[in-house]
Amino acid sequence: MHDLLSSVQSLPPWLIYVVAALVVAAETALIIGLVAPGEATLLLVGFLTYTGTLRLGPALLVMIAAAALGDALAFRAGRRFGPRLRASRWGARVGAERWARADAMLDRMGGRGVLTARWVAFARTLVPRLAGAAGMRYRRFAPWNLAGVITWVGASVLVGHLAGESYETVSRLLGRATGAVLVLVAALVAVVLAGRWLGRNPDPARALLTRAARLPPLRWLSARYGLLFFLLSLRLGPAWALLANLAAGVVLLFAVALVIAWTLRAVVRHSGLSLVDGVIASWFAARRTPDAVEATQAAVSLLRGSSLIVMVAVVALVQAWRHRPWRADLLSVVGTVGAFVPLVVLAAVADLAAGERVVLFSTQNVVVTASLCTLAWLLSRGARWPVAVAAWTVAAAGVVTIGGARLYLGLSTASGTVGAVLLGAAWTAVFMVAWATRDRAVAGGGSTGR
């Protein structure tokens, strides 16, 4: 490996730029990415910028242009040969209905799918062709694809640059990092599905119990002792029955949060992000000054998770008072007066999933992210778009500020900060999707009734 690096470093810089650009462009243009993904080339370019063989700025520009050109050629090939593929014998076996479903899915996901695919090996090789074959307009494809190219190429080159002498280790962990991205995408899909299920079943504990009662053992118990269960429910009364149902729902939320946290912990652990933790920590440590540390500590102390949870509780109570009446189900409670409850559950889960030896989640970062996202969600729900944009902009700025401040003080690592932000945002997304799903169901039911 060292001999190969020495040979590459002895080449003229312009030749390295040309060869690397051809490899990166060919990944999608010639479909060689199905055999050899292009991250290794970008990491090597980043390492060569670290050694001084190449310059970081020009290297980023050349690699971004090459990747964008390769995707444009792949899109063009899909547009030109896509109809011929569908008319072929293989396309006929796929069937017109499946092609129509693929077109509808790509049209529904649109640019978000194009951007996400750039981060997944093999998918980024095929998606530009599928987009072209599906008839997606290039002016819709290009901005999202360019955003994916800039972030993916920039991250890969910068990781190679920051890794420095650890380049070989980064290359060795490349496959694991790709697997971590796939797991992350699957986790985000699971978050959306969980939110949609919760939106359709705003009382999750009761919905699961109703479905479980249809199973043979419980169905037998219900048939044999149904009257006894009915008398017990009357004995409890509606108030205690509601409290028991809400408590069961909170326990269920705790279990869901634990699954999400453990999944994201696996993503962070196997992503290779920890390789740059030491470099980033050293960079921040070299720039600490007593005055800046004192001001940063004050900001971190002011915007603590506990104080933000109290703020969420106050805002939720005020909004719930203005928009009465409430519904007696779990989703209505955690989306109005009890909006602070998921944050308390998440704080407990983050502590439990942090890990014993290595802290992979900073509980403060997790709770701060979820609290700021929840505040933005509460304030933007039903508001005009300038208010919604302002709320989410402030929330994003707050997350970045607190995460950067804790990095500056050495209270958390870069990989831990990324994992915490992912966990906090994913947890909020569950309830946002659930609320939107129920709103659509209510609106659809109302329109049907009319």
Choose one word for the global shape.
globular
Low-confidence stretches: 446-450
What profile does the largest beta sheet have?
none
* Cα-to-Cα separation, first versus last residue: 72 Å
What is the strand tally?
A: 0
Number of domains: 2
Helix content: over 70%
Derived structural class: mainly alpha
Short structural summary:
The chain crosses the membrane at residues 14-36, 56-75, 144-164, 176-198, 218-234, 240-260, 267-286, 298-318, 330-353, 359-380, 387-409, 415-436. The chain has 450 residues and is an all-alpha fold.
Describe the overall structure.
There is one protein chain. The chain is mainly α and 450 residues long. The protein has 2 domains: 2-172, no CATH class; 176-449, no CATH class. It has helices at residues 2-9, 13-29, 39-51, 56-87, 89-94, 96-109, 111-117, 123-133, 138-163, 167-172, 174-200, 204-212, 216-270, 277-285, 290-302, 305-322, 330-334, 341-353, 363-380, 385-409, 414-449. Helix 12 (204-212) crosses helix 13 (216-270). The chain is globular. Mean pLDDT is 77; it is low at 446-450.
Write the SSE topology.
Elements: H1 2-9, H2 13-29, H3 39-51, H4 56-87, H5 89-94, H6 96-109, H7 111-117, H8 123-133, H9 138-163, H10 167-172, H11 174-200, H12 204-212, H13 216-270, H14 277-285, H15 290-302, H16 305-322, H17 330-334, H18 341-353, H19 363-380, H20 385-409, H21 414-449
Helix pairs in contact: 2-4, 3-9, 4-8, 4-9, 7-8, 7-9, 11-13, 11-21, 12-13, 13-18, 13-21, 15-20, 16-19, 18-19, 19-20, 19-21
